[in-house]
Amino acid sequence: MTEITKSEKNSANAEFLTSSQAAKRLGLSMATIQKLVDNHVLQAWKTFGGHRRISLASVMNYQSANNFLELPRQSADRPVKVMLVIESPDLMARLKKDMGQWHLPLQAVFQESLTEALLELLNDKHDLLVLQLMGERKQQEKVLEILQKFMSSRHTVAHTLIMSQEPDLVPPLSTATSPASIQVIHKELSPLWLSAYLSGFVAQRRA
Questions:
Q1: What global pTM score does this model have?
Q2: For 79-104, how does the pLDDT look when each residue is reduced to its tens digit (9 = 90+)?
Q3: What is the Cα–Cα distance from 163 to 86, expressed in whole angstroms?
Q4: Contact yes or no for 182/171 (Cβ under 8 A)
């Protein structure tokens, strides 16, 4: 988070929220908001007085992209079920190690391929599917088509998070009615970013 001058802030002409306002709007704790800001999930800066200001646009994008308000709530005693398809062996090993230190109520399952993930999702419903895409663009577009068809017909995953560094990669349009949603984020998947994202996801599911 960087400190900007008054003139820079005015030139951006961006609306902003305090941390408490952002927390109330998203239904998250102040600690979770701070984690989202520290890991650049939400865009923020500090005033010269030391007060945190969070971009309203980033809060709205975060809320809209995840469709958290439309996802069914769950009881606090059930862990959030997350399936992760990680193509990088090194990243998978690190995530398996780090997740135990995040102290989040998660039941995480790791898969090496989308095929394995979809086979498990045929019979076992999950709250979140996290998918790392590293292949060629045409291959990634094909994966999105497969996911769209699967989620429209099976409804066994509430939300899918796609991590891809391909610019402008978006899910195909679908006319099918489905409570599920697909979100594509164009950046490299990192443990720090994912821990902040999962903190927000868990908090919203239990709000």
A1: 0.69
A2: 999 999 998 999 999 999 999 899 89
A3: 10
A4: yes
Q: What is the pLDDT of residues 18-34, one digit of tens each?
A: 999 988 888 788 888 88
Domains and CATH numbers, the chain: 2-66 (1.10.1660), 68-205 (3.40.50.2300)
Query: Can you give the length of the chain in residues?
Result: 207
Give the whole-angstrom CA distance, residue 47 versus residue 17.
12
